[in-house]
Design brief:
There is one protein chain. By secondary structure, this protein is α/β, with parallel strands linked by helices. The protein has 2 domains: 232 residues, ATPase, nucleotide binding domain (Nucleotidyltransferase, domain 5); 216 residues, Nucleotidyltransferase, domain 5 (2-Layer Sandwich). The radius of gyration is 22 Å and the shape is globular. α13 crosses α14. The protein has 17 helices and 21 strands.
Length: 492
């Protein structure tokens, strides 16, 4: 068959990329057509995202994809979760979207939970509690004396905004909406009761669409007839869709990048006491099932170490950081990667040193020791959450599918399989883009369903397999005991 090209834009909280999926009828090949930074910009009104620059970069990537030989069949957007834009009645931005790391959110979650009831919010949405959640961002906006909510007509999360600019169609895609803590995952509709209790205007919450909805042809690109498809617009929803899940056994999944998410695909949401107390989230998958997951800090601390040393005048490439970490002594110093002090950018090495000193641990004395501390602490959090997952779901998992950019780090993958004590299949690396493209292919009729899509993925980009080394199990178990004592209670 004549090669078909599908375009996926995956926007992360640190960078963005546009990938062309080239389908020859048998395999998918991925080719990057644009890669660009996505940086948060401090302005007088707070910390914001540059949406216009991101949109231009997406258009450049689409144009570059056509240079590969044919006009793309379709285009899909996926992004990080929780952040949003407000539009006026003419469809114009009320203002640049804030970043979830904006300090305006300090204390808002606690105040909102005190007023509405923490368990009540969970029972209404099934969403884990994080200060960055959309619900709390909207409450922060509501408290602003110059609030945009007073004249806002529509609420669009980041990929919804990009889809609107590409197609001219206003919509809210449901996998992304399920990250907002404003969605009732049982009803697959907005949590209208909670929205009313919070005092948020109903008018801003629009029509929910399912992954695979064709929004219409692209606008503003002359000569293009490509369709814009609302894929699983939350990057984790797209990434999980690309997992070539083994047909035998019960497997869990881990999506890793700046953020990490540990969990499993289940048919219906879980609202048990333990799920609530440990703050697990129920998010919608691309086929309507549930991604039962727990969000955690991923490679953010590793990335911030790289940046800290760069700011000090020394560029240490990531592969060099990993090489030095591999040569460093294991389990010397551990941190809680989800502790609030590590959430803000800047001076990460100093923050780690201060944490170690405060908790009576040796302060890392080399860049390799800092890097190893970051990696081991992240993997120990995986291990802690893996145990929670098995206990809450009542299912012992036979293995882990790991996807995302951090699968490029072989030391990280090796640590994960040894820590969890189960086989790990790593890949695809560009999981979000791959799943994005697969959903487009289903929407356009080139694939029948998700099972067929995953079979195509297994052929096109076979995962790399890791087997646990049983001789390391005791050391990881002992390290977990130390790690858990660093952040009490265990369910956070």
């Amino acid at each position: 068959m004549k090669e078909k090209i599908y375009v996926a834009s995956d926007l992360g909280a640190g960078s963005g990329r546009v990938i062309a999926g080239r389908f020859d009828g048998t395999r998918l090949r991925f080719e990057e057509t644009n890669r660009f930074e996505n940086t948060q910009t401090p302005l007088p009104g707070g910390l914001h995202w540059n949406m216009l620059a991101l949109y231009r970069s997406i258009l450049d990537g689409i144009r570059n994809a056509r240079a590969l030989g044919s006009t793309p069949v379709s285009i899909g957007i996926d992004t990080w979760g929780v952040d949003f834009a407000l539009l006026d009645t003419a469809g114009r931005l009320c203002g640049l979207p804030h970043s979830y790391r904006d300090p305006r959110l300090d204390g808002v979650m606690e105040a909102t939970c005190a007023r509405l009831g923490r368990r009540h919010i969970y029972d209404a949405t099934g969403t884990q509690f994080m200060p960055i959640n959309t619900l709390f961002q909207l409450m922060a906006e509501k408290q602003n004396s110059a609030s945009q909510l007073s004249h806002a007509a529509r609420f669009l999360m980041v990929p919804d905004l990009m889809n609107y600019w590409l197609s001219g169609v206003l919509s809210n895609e449901i996998t992304m909406a399920s990250t907002s803590q404003c969605l009732d995952v049982k009803a697959r509709d907005w949590a209208w009761g909670l929205i009313d209790e919070a005092g948020l205007p109903r008018r801003i919450f629009g029509e929910l669409v399912k992954p695979g909805t064709i929004l219409g042809p692209i606008i503003n690109l002359e000569g293009f007839s490509s369709k814009v498809v609302a894929v699983g617009t939350h990057d984790t929803a797209s990434a999980v869709a690309a997992i070539p899940v083994p047909k035998e056994g019960k497997w869990g999944c881990l999506s890793t990048g700046t953020w990490g998410l540990v969990g499993a695909e289940i048919p219906e949401p879980i609202f048990s006491d333990e799920a609530y107390e440990c703050s697990w989230t129920n998010e919608i998958g691309v086929t309507g099932g549930i991604r039962f997951m727990k969000n955690l800090t991923g490679m953010w601390i590793y990335q911030e170490l790289h940046k800290a040393w760069k700011d000090q005048g020394e560029i240490v490439p990531y592969d060099r950081m990993t090489e030095m970490a591999a040569k460093s002594k294991p389990f010397v110093s551990l941190i809680d990667p989800d502790a609030p002090e590590f959430a803000r950018a800047g001076h990460m090495d100093e923050k780690i040193a201060a944490w170690c000193e405060r908790t009576g641990q040796p302060v890392p004395q080399s860049k390799g020791a800092f890097a190893r501390c970051a990696l081991e602490s992240m993997v120990l959090r995986y291990k802690e959450l893996w145990r929670q997952l098995e206990h809450i779901t009542g299912v012992r998992r036979d293995g882990l599918n790991m996807i995302g950019g951090a699968t490029r780090n072989a030391l990280h993958c090796r640590m994960t399989t040894d820590a969890l004590g189960v086989p790990v299949l790593c890949g695809p690396t560009e999981g979000a883009c791959a799943g994005n493209i697969l959903v487009q292919m289903i929407a356009m009729g080139d694939l029948k369903n998700l099972d067929e899509a995953r079979e195509l993925m297994a052929v096109s980009d076979p995962p790399i397999a890791y087997e646990p080394d049983a001789s390391n199990a005791a050391a990881w178990d002992e390290a977990l005991d130390r790690f858990v004592r660093l952040h009490s209670p265990a369910c956070t």
